[in-house]
């Protein structure tokens, strides 16, 4: 490989370095930050909108309130 080959390789590496540092790396950092923010927002929403746990005692008292009557359809 002659001097021209090394020169072309150097130019290629320079453009590749500039592309990766100025374009690819900022896009990677931005998407990582956005994902982190969405994750934080979703966890905050889940904490805010989760219903309080129900007590098992409430279920037993509601079933003791009345008697269950089976419904039967009468045909003419």
Automatic annotation (TrEMBL):
Entry's transmembrane regions: 6-28
Top-rank taxon: Bacteria
The protein, known as: ATP synthase F0 subunit 8
Ranges where the record places region Disordered: 40-66
Compositionally biased spans, kind Polar residues: 55-65
Keywords: Membrane, Transmembrane, Transmembrane helix
